[in-house]
Specification:
Two copies of one chain form a homodimer. In chain A, 35% of the residues lie in helices and 14% in strands. In chain A, the strands form four sheets. Chain A has a five-stranded mixed beta sheet, sandwiched between helices. In chain A, strands 9-10-13-12 form a four-stranded antiparallel beta sheet, covered by helices on one side. In chain A, strand 5, helix 5 and strand 6 form a beta-alpha-beta unit. The termini of chain A are far apart. The interface between A and B is large, with 91 and 91 residues.
């Protein structure tokens, strides 16, 4: 080993879901939207003059920030954007979690949270879900260095009622509370905590364009919070990279936000497919957790999840399997097109009845 | 002050060059390329099917990494890419500078280096340039936690001879040496340290698409080094954000690399303009440091740089002025189109002869 290796930050990286290069697979493993982005997106990109690319993008991504602020009827000083919600969450961890007390998040949740904490030497404590895979908010009301809750949670898909989050906020004023709403657009209206940012100056709501905006390929996420929070975040962002969002991202993101009708139509279709699919796999002997997202988390009464996962993969259908304690008999299945879900149901039926 | 603010990472962010929204200004302040990107870039982007954007990009950006590896005739395990060379350098600081000894870089150089060090609590020591604004390599041969040298240096534009870097590498095996070659494509052939990465496993060469590839708007940079270094970098990258490069960036970057003739032609034109412009402003009474970049660093014998800066700005010509000790009577002027430089010369002439 060379001497310089002694000073290397050694980490165990997050493993993203597989991105198979074969275009013919049915890809239900990374919660992408089955519908293409709004037609406005490519229209705006194609209108772009190539000369604009020789110049740096607007470091404050003003056009995009303004369109988000207008859309959500908040001030633009309350909006921060980054390279996917991963970049936004990473920046939040870096900016706000410098305290001595551990930060808290569920033991079963987005598996990037502990990775960021490890990367940045942040102490953390995981809080167990209850036996129905639900978050018990009372468990978080104790001294802490920050709280991170995905709502709805992943990979469970379960939504935490807003009054419980209000209770948490009322009892937790001294540390930052992050509500990661990556999937909230697939939940009933009124579930979001966004309207609470004007009341609680320690609340950060995080969103992404990867799921409900059909733009996982764009890498665009954002946070909304009290302007004081956004200022601290921007200071850290401008201390790391002045221009995180490229010209394409700013244009395409703004275009996507402008097409609200398309956004609502796609989400409605996905919710309808989710409900139909959930009923159908229950009939095949699956237990399905109640989902308010664009995926379902399901376990079969008799067959091992790992075996189903492997069988489906061989058939060209990718779902997500986490070999982790407590959830290693579950599959996370993204909601695709109706015909993709039908094909999946067909293969499941074949597998389950084959012997 | 709320209690949660006690645990905030408080930093003094880097200030990027102004990005005026008025499209009619002559913009010579951020070292952008005056020529648009290769026509292949928009062609490839326009060929893109919108369905691809609903999916996550390839987290390893394989197509781009392979095209860079092929172009430079190195193995793809020696290439790392990020959101501009800022992201790449930020990741390098985060990954390799965990030691007790201070890292070293010049006192006059890219002003992001101390910002990253501060953000990540890295000890650093700045090493003064000599009175000709040159790096004296002997000053770096001492115990250190890492060395970062921009070559050619910015904002001076001065190239350090390769044999001096070899001398440094021969005498510095125990820490990482970063050579930031953002401007090397405007230097004489043979100036780059790239061929040394196979000999020195602690050397990292960093490059960007923002200058010589005409793509500042894309945010794409890369590092080339021993595969062991790239592995450590990727581990940290995958612990922060699995997908930093979006689908546009991967496509457009690959297309730009494929058009070598265009790349060479633009660079030759810029070098010719630089030489012509340097002679002309010398005639106007400027001292011009020898530049091997796409900018010149110049000081006038009689007029204060800050006054010239302000005068030009009022005339719609943006150059860069750093109000920093030792260089506060210099202007950094990016090389634009010939007609832009002529207009600048004309305004300078008017200003200098006005009283």
């Amino acid at each position: 080993m060379s001497k310089w290796e002694e000073n290397v930050r050694k980490v165990v990286p997050y493993t993203p879901g597989e991105q198979p290069k074969d275009q013919n697979v049915i890809k239900l493993n990374t919660n992408e939207n089955p519908y293409p982005p709004s037609p406005f997106v490519m229209m705006k990109v194609n209108e772009m003059k190539d000369d604009i690319l020789r110049k740096y993008p607007d470091p404050t991504a003003d056009m995009l920030i303004e369109s988000l602020a207008d859309y959500y009827k908040i001030d633009k000083s309350s909006v921060f954007a980054g390279v996917g919600s991963d970049d936004v969450l990473g920046m939040i961890f870096m900016t706000f979690f410098k305290g001595e007390l551990p930060i808290l998040f569920p033991d079963v949740t987005y598996s990037f949270y502990p990775v960021w904490a490890d990367l940045m030497d942040i102490k953390y404590e995981t809080v167990p879900l209850n036996d129905k895979f639900e978050i018990n908010i009372e468990d978080y009301i104790k001294p802490n260095g920050g709280i991170v809750i995905a709502n709805p949670n992943a990979p469970t898909g379960i939504l935490l009622e807003k009054d419980k989050i209000i209770k948490l906020l009322d009892n937790n004023k001294d540390s930052i509370v992050v509500i990661d709403e990556a999937y909230i657009d697939f939940s009933p209206e009124g579930s979001s905590c966004l309207d609470l940012i004007s009341k609680y100056d320690n609340l950060i709501v995080v969103r992404t364009f990867s799921k409900s905006r059909n733009l996982a390929g764009l890498r665009l996420g954002y946070a909304m919070a009290d302007p004081k929070i956004i200022k601290y975040l921007n200071d850290v962002k401008f201390s790391y990279n002045s221009y995180t969002l490229n010209t394409f991202t700013i244009l395409a993101g703004t275009a996507a936000i402008s097409d609200d009708a398309y956004f609502r139509k796609c989400n409605e279709k996905i919710i309808a497919t989710r409900e139909r699919f959930s009923e159908k796999i229950k009939e095949l002997g699956f237990t399905v957790l109640p989902s308010d997202t664009n995926f379902v988390f399901a376990s079969h009464k008799e067959k091992a999840a790992s075996d189903i996962f492997q069988y489906l993969k061989n058939k060209g259908i990718f779902v997500r399997y986490f070999n982790l304690p407590g959830i290693d008999n579950y599959l996370r299945i993204s909601i695709g097109l109706d015909e993709e879900m039908d094909k999946l149901l067909e293969e499941l039926n074949t597998f389950l009845t084959q012997d």
